[in-house]
From TrEMBL:
Residues 1-246 form the CN hydrolase domain. This is omega-amidase. SUPFAM superfamilies: Carbon-nitrogen hydrolase (SSF56317). One of its GO terms (biological process) is asparagine metabolic process. It catalyses: 2-oxoglutaramate + H2O = 2-oxoglutarate + NH4(+); 2-oxosuccinamate + H2O = oxaloacetate + NH4(+). It comes from the Eukaryota. It comes from Spizaetus tyrannus. The gene is Nit2. One of its GO terms (cellular component) is mitochondrion. Keywords: Hydrolase.
């Protein structure tokens, strides 16, 4: 099946972001994409100072538009971090997924909050405004089962392993790495998660905006189970496409059968809730 990743240029105008995102979703569908993914924080600038201002409940304006365009195009739509979600007085970094009938299939709240301090380069603390999610998120398509993470979640190998145990063959991470962590780890982490679990891994970034308070790395990418980069955007706004070949995935798992060779008598990863 064809996967499309939309690397959107995000502005401070929520309405414009939503309209352009939906337009690019329609474009991707017209080119044969069956699963389409938007970047982290696609309806607002990324930054703790913006989260409360742009927050919505689910359902709300942004998710309603995603539902409608998913139904119109009859696709599976991964809504990036469609919105900072407000629920019961708390804010979450939330990714929603909609099916071809417009129904919501999954709602993933970012599990691992981005609290880092690289002296002289970048300091950021999502926990100043956001609360963490507490669950794994998987959705089914006629093609394969898909696991969801958001940005910083990709650094935690255990999460990807749980998704592999649950039968996922594609992992999608809307993310917004920056100019420090992006060149160092963006592709490396994707290739590691793909090879370790013999799955396809897709990451969807906003386009780079040098004038923003937080400058995203861009370079939305798809990696196959062999660890090869099979599609990659530059820094500018773009839509990239790739065909997910589940036959190739099966062949790789047969050739190097690590999933059946794990020494479960010696170690294991378990999901607690």
């Amino acid at each position: 099946f064809r996967l499309a990743l939309i690397q959107l240029h995000v502005s401070a105008d929520k309405s414009d972001n939503l309209q352009r995102a939906c337009g690019l979703v329609r474009e991707a569908s017209a080119k044969g994409a069956k699963v389409v993914a938007l970047p982290e924080c696609f309806n607002s600038p990324y930054g703790t100072q913006y989260f409360k201002e742009y927050a919505e409940k689910i359902p709300g304006e942004s998710t309603q538009m995603l539902s409608e365009v998913a139904k119109e195009c009859s696709i599976y739509l991964v809504g990036g971090r469609s919105i900072p979600e407000e629920d019961d007085g708390k804010l979450y970094n939330t990714c929603t997924v909609f099916g071809p009938d417009g129904a919501i299939l999954a709602k993933h709240r970012k599990v691992h909050l981005f609290d880092i301090n690289v002296p002289g380069k970048i300091q950021f603390k999502e926990s100043e405004t956001l609360s963490p999610g507490n669950s794994f998120s998987v959705f089914d398509t006629p093609y394969c089962k898909v696991g969801l993470g958001i940005c910083y979640d990709i650094r935690f190998a255990e999460m990807a392993q749980i998704y592999g145990q649950k039968g996922c063959q594609l992992l999608i991470y809307p993310g917004a790495f920056n100019l420090t962590t992006g060149p160092a780890h963006w592709e490396l982490l994707q290739r590691g998660r793909a090879v370790d679990n013999q799955v396809y891994v897709a990451t969807v970034s906003p386009a780079r905006d040098e004038k923003a308070s937080y400058v995203a790395w861009g370079h939305s990418t798809v990696v196959n189970p062999w660890g090869e980069v099979i599609a990659k955007a530059g820094a500018e706004e773009a839509v990239i496409y790739t065909d997910i070949d589940l036959k190739k995935l099966a062949e790789i798992r047969q050739q190097i059968p690590i999933l059946s060779q794990k020494r479960r008598d010696l170690y294991g990863i378990e999901m607690k809730k």
